[in-house]
Specification:
2 domains; 3 helices; 2 strands
């Protein structure tokens, strides 16, 4: 039983470098962005204060909604092209591949 317990601990040690890099370069910066997004700002500085006006401006901006719609349009076009090409390739492979 001792070897099973050692193997379980080894897997945690093997995953530790990846977890630490992801925490340092992915999770921590995202958390900082979320925290700072609630702060107030002026022309020269960021003021630590809890406000929702940044999100109100973001969600009521015409430019933001236009960007969302453009993103959805490109995602739909990409999905449609990928689906069409995939079915066409599958159809052709059925003609040229032996069963």
């Amino acid at each position: 039983m001792q070897s099973v317990r050692t193997t379980e601990n080894n897997s945690y040690w093997q995953a530790a470098p990846l977890v630490s890099v992801l925490m340092a370069f992915l999770v921590f910066p995202i958390l900082v962005i979320v925290v700072v997004s609630f702060w107030d700002y002026n022309e020269f500085s960021i003021i630590p204060d809890f406000i929702l006006e940044n999100y109100q401006y973001l969600l009521t901006s015409h430019v933001t909604w236009q960007a969302y719609l453009q993103t959805l349009k490109y995602a739909f076009i990409t999905w449609l092209l990928t689906l069409t090409i995939g079915f066409f390739c599958r159809l052709l492979s059925g003609f040229f591949c032996e069963k």
